Amino acid sequence: MGISNVKIYIHIANNDIYFLFLYHMPLIEFTDKGLYCPQGKFYIDPWRPVDKAIITHAHSDHAKAGSAHYFCHTLTKPLLLSRLGPHTIQDSAWGVPHHINGVQVSLHPSGHIIGAAQIRVEYKGEIWVCSGDYKTENDGISGAFEPINCHTFITESTFGLPIYNWLPQHSIYESMRQWVLKNIAQQKNAILLAYSLGKAQRVLEALAPLDIPIWVHGAIWNMHESLSNAGVALPLVQRITPEHTKSNFKNAIILAPPGADGSSWIKKFTPYQLAVCSGWMQVRANQRRNNADIGFALSDHADWNGLLQAIKATSAEKIFVTHGFQAVFSKYLKDQGLEAEEVVTAYGQEEEASKTISE
Amino acid sequence: MKAFATLIEQLSTTTKTAEKVEALYQYFKVANDRDKVWAIALFTGRRPRRTISSTLLKTWCADYCNLPLWLLEECRHTVGDLSETIALLIPVQSDIIYTSSPLHVYIEKLISLSSANEAEKKAYMLQCWQQLNSSTERFVFNKLMSGAFRIGVSQQLLIQALSKFAQMEASFIAHCITGKWDPSLISFHELINVSAPSADVSKPYPFCLAYPIESGLDKLGDSANWLAEWKWDGIRGQLIKRKDTAFLWSRGEELITEKFPELNQLFTYLPNGIVLDGEIVAAIHDKPLPFSLLQTRIGRKHISKKILSDAPVRFFAYDILEYRGEDIRQYSLENRRKILESLVTSLNVHTLFISPSISFTHWQELKQIHLQSRANSAEGFMLKKKKSPYYMGRKKGDWWKWKVDPYTIDAVLIYAQKGSGRRGNLYTDFTFAVKDGDKLVPFAKAYSGLTNAEIAQVDAFVKRNAVEKFGPVRTVKPELVFELAFEGIHLSSRHKCGIAVRFPRIYRWRKDKKPEEINTLADLKALL
Question: Pairing relation of β-strands B399-403 and B378-385?
Fold first, then answer.
């Protein structure tokens, strides 16, 4: 990667080469605090406190607390505030150019979740794009992924294996509705586990047409409130509180975050059937490990073909591959004749990218 | 195929036995008779022989999907199963909807392909990959083609479902589906009909199985009601003699009559209409030898003179299920044993022994004798109620196994590999080492014994500390210490450390221990 080249040049310590080093100084470096733009003196999704942090989206592995100044998309701002508490946050609409220490920065939809942005960075004609997390299929809520021409593209690789190719959203939604109706017909509650931010809102969209009461866990309720207050139109839901007892839940839809699985909280919905909504459900072993009655491979990340198409659409000369199957995916890109390198980051430790049992 | 794939889906997504039985029952209701027979065959381990190697499957799939082979391998490690990997890699044909054929069509085609050339096999595979619509159907199809069909349904559940479907006693069904039958020749009616003329003289009875004892011996009541026998470390076998032919069945329902030529004399002398339950044990006279010696014979096609003299086998009988052609499983154990004793005495064949019952007057005394199990080359005791009938399958209450405590040793984790099946994409297959001076010597692999939460922790540790990036095996920092348990230990020239342990598993995670504190190779050898 760029930064290691720098080290080699310094070791040789020759004036000419030192000049070359300045000329080739990368626009974004990979540091132990996160992605850093030395010319603009800002970080993108830093995992340690810094002065200026540009945040791609509000998932907790990308949006860490403690930095002095934050910059993000307008729809990410309320989510960030509800996650991090009071912070100085500057926001921006899509595509508006901002100048930070002479570097031009703009945000572009990544299609991952509501407000999720790709960060386009331009300096003296050189363009880098950091994808954050993205998906190429338009989910109708998060904004459509926008391919951006650039010289260097930093891509995620959460589902960077060819076994991960998603069915179209409408057909997954249809299976989800069929599954819910089957359970209701059998006098059972239908519990769906989905991440509070992003996935839960999509599941709501999918199930709202059924006109069956939808109850949500407190964590999902909080996100729902923040988004509604920010002007995002979402279907009506009811919050589950400790006062609600078993008798409140008859033939209902219950939406909860993955952590609710196996908790005593979930018992009050008996009899129920349990679904897990996550890209990891593509593989049977994950489904079985989660003790789910069914898994829906519904993801907020690009699938294999999505990643390849996105990369191609940027026309980038150089690809950096971050969190996910970065070793395998960058090797494949190299096999295809692209200049690709893997980068180790601290992303992907939470939310959908986590590959642990409790995912 | 669609109905069968749905069944497999249902079986693998529910943990509730009632739902599994219901799913099987529903399948038997809709499936045609040929499919029913094949489904029963598949669920009882009678899968057709593999006609296409996994290497060929991989190559064809990589070709078809235009992917490099190494990438397919990486996918396989993540999925944990080749059939599923291929099912996921094949692109979905959304434009044309094909209707799949019934299950038996695919299996019979598969059998007919065994003599076909590679091109014909490939053409058939590709055609099916294109035409099977759902990834579950492709998955089940691949499982069949690669001879790897091992979808777990316990025999008991299958029997319950069949019994409900055929409206016959479960014990009758169990008897019908055991033994030697060829799913490509037998009809469903012939299979579920033991008294039909075609019924096989080799047909074994379902084995009676015991659970490990859970509570104190006092809970078993008066010790006078119980019979204690040594639990031998051999191969459980059912010996049948009917119509002048002898059959020896293993517990896995494999016919192993030919594997033990030293039992031929016994086969000859045994009268007709006899079924014995017992243990095939490597032994000099009635003194058992370690299981490792018997192990050297298992799986061999030719039994050499050396093997015959190093590890001669004997049949230690402990029960009799059929006598003079009559099913006597409902007799009490006491009475069956009397018949068995008089039979063995009258036969007087040097390869047949009665597994002795241990005389004791109270439980405390039996506990003392139990401590001598290893010295008697036994794994512990079997406790059986004297009044008990010979049950079908595993039943709690009248038969218990009471094993000796395993050997244990503290070792450090040095290599990890992703598991398969349910453990796909998780590092769950571990290699452990003991110390030898300042070196670490690998001595055992273990896969089981951790809770799901512990698996997640170890998996995260491996992912953080992995050295290599490609291929399945990860070398990890020797840091995590585990107490390993195993049943036996013997010298082995095939293992680098010079010893081999039997049935190693993780006993507990010693988070309190540092890698410096693990046991040494010398500690291990001291157990020999």
Answer: antiparallel
DSSP helix/strand/coil, B261: helix
Residue A50's contacts (CB-CB under 8 Å, 6 or more residues apart) are: A33, A34, A43, A67, A68
Residues A33/A36/A40/A42 CA torsion (nearest 10 deg): -30
Measure the CA–CA gap between A22 and A31, rounded to whole angstroms: 18
Beta bridge partners of B288: B283
C-alpha span between B138 and B64 (Å, rounded): 15
Residue B58 annotated among the catalytic residues of the structure:
no
Q: Cβ of A356 and B13 within 8 Å?
A: no
The domains of chain B are located at 2-145, 208-403, 407-525
Tokens of B72: 């397919």
CATH number of A169-296: 3.40.50.10890
Which secondary structure element, helix H or strand E, spans residue B338, and what is its range?
A: helix B333-347
Backbone angles phi, psi at B485, to 5 degrees: -115, 145
Rounded CA-CA distance B239/B202 in Å is: 10
Residue A162 in tokens: 């060819």
Catalytic residue among B122, B143, B231, B259: B231
Q: Residue B357: phi, psi to the nearest 5?
A: -90, 145
Torsion angle of C-alpha atoms B147, B148, B152, B154, degrees rounded to 10 = 40
**Which DSSP state fits B357?**
B
Lookup: tokens for A7: 């080290």
Instruction: Say which DSSP state A242 is in.
Output: T
Q: Which of A158, A159, A161 to mutate to test the interface with B (most CBs of B within 10 A)?
A: A161
SS3 A11: helix
| A263, two tokens | 């908790």
Is the predicted pLDDT of residue B469 greater than 70, yes or no? Answer: no
Q: What is the pLDDT of residues B72-94, one digit of tens each?
A: 999 998 898 899 999 999 987 66
- pLDDT digit string, tens, across residues B18-59: 989 999 999 999 999 999 999 999 998 888 888 888 899 999
Tokens matching residue A262: 């196996």
Show the CA angle centred on residue B355, arms to residues B324 and B233, nearest 5°.
120
CATH topology of domain B407-525: OB fold (Dihydrolipoamide Acetyltransferase, E2P) (2.40.50)
* DSSP for B431-484, written as a single string: EEEEEETTEEEEEEEE-----HHHHHHHHHHHHHH----SSSEEE--TT-EEEE
- Which among B421, B424, B456 is the nearest to A357, CB-wise? B456
CATH T-level assignment (fold) for domain B2-145: DNA ligase i, domain 1 (1.10.3260)
Average pLDDT over residues A318-322: 94
d(C-alpha B518, C-alpha B521), whole Å: 10
What's the Cα-to-Cα distance from B85 to each of B18, B57, B90, B133, rounded to whole Å?
30, 11, 9, 15
Rg (CA), chain B: 26
Query: Which CATH code is given to the segment(s) B208-403?
Result: 3.30.470.30
Characterize the bridge pairing of strands B287-288 and B313-323: unpaired
- Please tell me the distance from the alpha carbon of residue A347 to that of residue A336, in angstroms, as a whole number: 26
**Residue of chain A minimizing CA distance to B89:** A163
Architecture of the domain defined by A2-163+300-353: 4-Layer Sandwich (3.60)
pLDDT grade for B310, boundaries at 50, 70 and 90: confident
pLDDT digits (tens, 9 = 90+) for A185-212: 999 999 999 999 999 999 999 999 999 9
Contact B80 A283 (CB under 8 A): yes
Tokens of B428: 């769950």
**A356 pLDDT above the threshold of 70:** no
Any bridge partners for residue B235, and if so which?
B280
Domains in chain A: boundaries: 2-163+300-353, 169-296
β-bridge pairing A152-157 and A126-130: parallel
Q: Could you tell me if A288 lies within 8 Å of chain B, comparing CB atoms?
A: yes
